[in-house]
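for the writeup, i need someone to sanity check this before i put it in the appendix. the sequnce is what the collaborator sent (i think, or maybe the updated version? ugh). structure was predicted straight from it, no edits. if anything looks off just tell me and ill rerun, i have time this weekend
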Amino acid sequence: MTRSVQVWRVVKKKFQASAFEGAGAKKFGGRWNSTGIPVVYCSSSLPLAILELLVHIKRNEALAHYVAFPADIPQEKIEILRARLPKGWDGYPYHKSTIRLGDAWARKARSPALSVPSALLPSERNILINPLHPGFRSVKIGKPQSVRIDRRLK
């Protein structure tokens, strides 16, 4: 029996149809990828996914405009990043070392998913998904759910 790992992705409702295509990361790049390389950024828990969102949006932006997707990935399809990261890897602007690591993983298509530390909470994990990897078909994407959090966090 194959064990799966549940991950979460939070996106604007207007982008929910393409939430697992990696278009935003391809267009703008991110901590773990260069512009031009599609990567889907997920988190190991819904609270972490929301924290990862909150650092990128304006405080007055309504979370009512977002949805959260659960997705299940077979555990054996997730590679764990074991590279030693240099001091400052979690800073902004994004460190070139993390971008190079993510780019190499995506280009070589070693696995459909890569577990990396969260820059916000390094003891927690974010999961990158390569939508171009043949194993992407094994990712089971759930139905979107409303994002509801206490108003004091807005």
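The mean pLDDT is 94. The chain is about 20% helix and 25% strand.
thx in advance!!
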